[in-house]
Amino acid sequence: MNLWKISLDKYNSYDNRKYETLFTLANGYRGIRGALEFSSKGNKGNYIAGIFDKSQSQVTEIVNLQDPLGFNIYIEDEKVDIDECVLDSFKRELDMYKGILYTSFIAITKKGKSIEVKCERFVSRNKINRWAAKYEITPLNFNGKVFLENYIDGSVTNSAWDVMNKTKHFKVKNNYDSNPGIALTVETNDNNIKALELTTLMGENEIGNIFKNRRYSEFGELVSEVYETFMTEGKSSTIVKYGISISDRDLKSDLYASGTRQLKDFMKDGYDVEIKKHIIIWEKIWNEIDINIDGDEKAQIGIRFNLFQLASSAYEGDTTISIAAKGLHGEGYKGHVFWDTEVFMLPFFIYTRPDVAKALLMYRYNTLKGARKNAETTGYKGARFAWEAADEGLEVTPKWGVDYDGNAVRIWTGDEEYHINSDIAFGIVEYYRATNDKEFIVNQGVEILLDTAKFWQSRVEYNKVEDRYEISSVIGPDEFHEHVDNNVFTNYLAKWNIEKALFFKNWLKIEDNVKYKVLCSKLGLNEEDFNVWEMIYKKMYIPKSEDGMIIEQFEGYFDLADIEISKYDENEMPIWPDFKGNKLGETQLLKQADVAQLMIMLPEEFSEDVKKFNYEYYEQRTMHKSSLSPSMYSILGLAVGDRQNAYKYFMKAIYTDLEDNQGNTDFGLHAAAAGGSWQSAIFGFVGLRVNKEGILNINPWLPEQWEGLSFNINWKNSRVSISISKDKIEVNSTGDLSLNIYDKKYLISNKKHLVVER
Amino acid sequence: MNLWKISLDKYNSYDNRKYETLFTLANGYRGIRGALEFSSKGNKGNYIAGIFDKSQSQVTEIVNLQDPLGFNIYIEDEKVDIDECVLDSFKRELDMYKGILYTSFIAITKKGKSIEVKCERFVSRNKINRWAAKYEITPLNFNGKVFLENYIDGSVTNSAWDVMNKTKHFKVKNNYDSNPGIALTVETNDNNIKALELTTLMGENEIGNIFKNRRYSEFGELVSEVYETFMTEGKSSTIVKYGISISDRDLKSDLYASGTRQLKDFMKDGYDVEIKKHIIIWEKIWNEIDINIDGDEKAQIGIRFNLFQLASSAYEGDTTISIAAKGLHGEGYKGHVFWDTEVFMLPFFIYTRPDVAKALLMYRYNTLKGARKNAETTGYKGARFAWEAADEGLEVTPKWGVDYDGNAVRIWTGDEEYHINSDIAFGIVEYYRATNDKEFIVNQGVEILLDTAKFWQSRVEYNKVEDRYEISSVIGPDEFHEHVDNNVFTNYLAKWNIEKALFFKNWLKIEDNVKYKVLCSKLGLNEEDFNVWEMIYKKMYIPKSEDGMIIEQFEGYFDLADIEISKYDENEMPIWPDFKGNKLGETQLLKQADVAQLMIMLPEEFSEDVKKFNYEYYEQRTMHKSSLSPSMYSILGLAVGDRQNAYKYFMKAIYTDLEDNQGNTDFGLHAAAAGGSWQSAIFGFVGLRVNKEGILNINPWLPEQWEGLSFNINWKNSRVSISISKDKIEVNSTGDLSLNIYDKKYLISNKKHLVVER
């Protein structure tokens, strides 16, 4: 079993959409869903990060651009359509180590022609605008004319599967017979963003060019070139398709001139050189991100899938884009950015690819204008980050959606899920703590911390009777409960956000006083505000059980119908219990970790006993209807000693998409679950956390079948390699490192090797 | 067995293209292939007669316009795609008597929803721009939201099945949310002809409107409206789709304004009223065209199919269009007009619908400018009608095609198949003989006869040695032999053309001397020319066998390898014999009737013995690789007493498309075979012919199983009804009629009834 490969051995067109998501190739700049060229079924997707458009859709969404994958094989007059053929063999394989998607099959057409096709496709990590495919085609029982069609399809829409919401976000502007190749430019409806796809075919064998005739055609929104060739039984022909994808979102010169130049450069470099460079970069990335699990092949492949897709979704070169909830892998959640990025994915990047982490946080800084606008339009001050953000940071959460029964329901998250503000503040502090990136904290980080604190200052309500600050009518992470008062996750993190704002403003005052003054002036803050902040921090209301051991998720939660989960499905996931006449929101059932989530994010703030009580209480009531939930419970479970469920939740998290256990992989990657998977391994099984003194701690526990677990992290500019086996822990560091292992303190000096017996 | 219906009981998407041809609905103005709305497979076709465009195709061709049939049913988020469903029942039925296409099926979707759909569709013969469909939809095992999508698809191309020739002939100009309904306008590339499709849905049940929400969308080249409704298990909902199709080829006002007005008028009239009027017109047409065959259900249905499709292909209201070789039923032969019209189809119209016959001949008159241009550009004089004609009468035969093995071959028919000129002359004389339409012969007919004769004058070559006129390097009806000299069919009909020109010029001189003089002046003719014509008529070379009994198809034909046909396939059609090392053109094998064709067209010019010898000689050598051939051999066979083969050939002719016996029904109707079918019945079994004195003769012979044969014809403004049974022949006439039956002369006076024992 190759532990780097995701394979599909049996073709069923009904699964095409799922595998398009799983086999997406992306480089952070763009993503191409893993569509099969030889089937018209599924939901092709080609996205460039940051290209959004609203048109007549409810809210702005990532644009599904013109499809450049178009490739047809015609055996004389018969098109090789895999859905019309008998398949003698079929295999698709994503080589995650190399970032290459392989497809091969033997198809027998209705007319009895048997043909073998082997393809590989990659989206370059070397040059982000390049992608390519290679086809090896062999007639197995005939000699004859074969036509190869290369086309770019501009008839693409978003939400193609949904007749009432299907939306076309662009107009096809130009078709080009571009010699070599073909090109098609589109322009988005609202902001006139142009995107160009340019592709061409090269066919060669031992005696050179194999193409006889070429025909260029324009069919409205589709541009095509067809090459005639002659193929001989048993002899393979190799065709390379070169692709260039560019947009004037990031490139300000003439698109077509630039595209043709880039295509020629690509062809001059050649397919083999480009793919080699691409593989070298992936090797380098794997060296940073891989988690090696010995003794558990399923876990090994599963965790790698999540690491691969996370790494594919991000691009350090653009600070105006972030990672959508569904990555660059589909149109679910409309390409919007949620707390998923900072709370679930960011830790992975902070510890493995800090330059990416910084770019993601820079996206928040660069959309502060939108966040301030959000605060203003909703009657508050400072910066209110959008629950769902797109290109400008404005709130773009849809106001309406459908419930489990398909009925229209008002969506309140954009109005009430305020905790996104603290989540971003959390990401900044986490990033700075691990990287010591002063330049960022001084120039961007503190500004965000102060402006989000300023928002909270305007948002909290002072309760005179109780002499406390409250936040009413919110939604916490658990979205089953809307319009609740004093959700602890929200209140606690608001308080924490203010605490950090106060800390860093004091720090900045000393570190860079001019900067400090400029910032206060820019944000309209002075000592009076800071005094209020202190008060809020001290008097924020945190509801708890009478004995103080169980945090009450929100005020009044304990008074709700206490329906416990007692049955589990074949995947060990909760089955909806009987509500006993209550509506869902009238019960204590949770969609996902909420109090538990808080305890994972701020582990040093809660005693082990408190964690244990809360874990046990809420775990019994959590339905895991969000893919964000299982990984979190695995972490908290391990922290409090529930090792049995931890592995189950870990496997659930890493197989979210591979086993489609939320039933919606069709619509894109569960990127937060991928981030949660990394956290579950590192924060959970390894038990990595930073204590109040800023010292790294590990406290590993491995499931019985795991022979070993090893990985690398970045910690304050050192690269730390940790390898855990049954009997020992080995640590290497490129810099001096202070590390607690099982609560015992170790000092590792530069490039020294530490071995600790387990 | 309903003898008016063509049925399909089993669905197989592979046959969709064939049934699209068979189920085409046309009214002469336009044709819509019988595509199934619920399948994406096949080759949709929507043609308006006379809209041609070349663009990048080899020659100008009839334009496959935007598709107005678009209709989708979505059960919640699941589209009813018949190719993805399990079918519990399926039936399509063309009711030829009413001109209505019925489709019904019960489909079970992948998600297990069972739905019954019953549709009817008609293209109005009442108002040519109207068409409509009615859907009755019943959920069989669910209640729920159903979305109904009405759309017009402008992403249509010609030759969609052929990757190297696929061509888009128009640009989508405008999409309209037209309240009611949607509209899409296209404009052809070359001549900027605009065509508009306008459609809307109405859904009503006992309590009125059933639609809840409507969504209008534009997707590039596609415009759509979706209606949301709620359907209940076991309850049927009826949705009517109204359509208007117009073009500025024939309508000079603002298309969209006119279209919306017409749609409103149509909806005011209502579906039920329009379909009733449509049926009444079809009843009237059937009263003119039907051939009733008692005792042979297969023959009865088969002949009616041909009559239905012929009548559907013609429109008396437009004198600038003719009937294409493939009708309005497909893109085969690119919508071009051949000799098929005058020689094969015209007799049907002359004798049943003479106003249509006149319109078809007027098309030739109205394209004389093109015919004169053809003569000029090829170095001749007068009018040279195009072997393949489109909108302007210019020669549009492709110069290149593919042979049986798929190799590119030069097509010479446009250069050498001169006989089209005499074929048109033949049509004019036949028309006049049967109708006495003096107005036509004076104003248009003679002009064509003279100008085609003038062409022949410039085309013939005088052989001094033999003192005879010859025509070298031609192709006759048998296209296996190219560049032949003195093809008798060509020479004989050229001579005949000249003879008729001389006759009618003399006639016109007396009838209308001013017209005569004007015509001579216009065409540049005088007595010197007429003297030359006389000489050509007298001295035209007609090669024959030494005993004079067998006409030699062309000079040297008897010297070719004499390969006879000895084996027949399961359909009793010839199997290619061994060529014994010769190329096809080096053998005496024929593609189709050639000498035999001549003898059918001019039966009075050849003795029965000569016909018999020639029939026997050529029948043995004819491969029937043209659908034009079997019907002709049935006629000649009956004339010479070969009754066995006659029935076989008749059935072959009438089932050309129904049994797809040429293997290319996918591409459209074999309209000439349809005309040949009528001729085979009337000229063959009835033995109807006009003798030299202009007297109508019948000489019926019926196959054993036929209990009777009855039909109507028009003869010199009388309507003649003839009914033949086993023992007698009954004749009715609305006017005085002289008629020979079995060579015995009868006079039938006005409205009298004649019965003759057999």
Automatic annotation (TrEMBL), chains A, B:
Keyword Membrane among record annotations: no
Domain Glycoside hydrolase family 65 C-terminal: 688-746
Glycoside hydrolase family 65 N-terminal domain: residues covered: 10-247
Pfam families recorded: Glyco_hydro_65C (PF03633), Glyco_hydro_65m (PF03632), Glyco_hydro_65N (PF03636)
Glycoside hydrolase family 65 central catalytic domain boundaries: 304-679
Family indicated by similarity: Belongs to the glycosyl hydrolase 65 family.
Protein name: Glycoside hydrolase family 65 protein
